[in-house]
Model the fold of this input.
Amino acid sequence: MTGKKFIQNLAKNLDVSLVTARKIKQAFILTLASALEKGESIQLIGLGSLTVVKKAKHPYRNIQTGKIEIFPAHKTVQLRVSKKLKEVINKKTGKKGKRLVTGNR
Done:
């Protein structure tokens, strides 16, 4: 799904204008980025948790030159998907048969 399509779906589901939906998306992304920049973990019920993890430096082979080079240590974001979302993706229902998200459609 493209960003444009995501905004259109968001506007439809929330019954707001496209401009408002775009602002909601931007605010959501900025809030996530701000928290992750501080090293905080984010838990979103029904989606999963986002955490900043440190990756150690490691060697890799440059396929163009064939040389072994070192990839520097860095931080990255890890998403651990929730059990509910895994069930939805795999077409399973929860213990009580509830959907991941309920609302007007």
User: Anything to note?
Assistant: The chain has a mean pLDDT of 89. Residues 1-40 form one domain. DSSP finds three helices and five strands in the chain. The first strand starts at residue 42 and ends at 44.
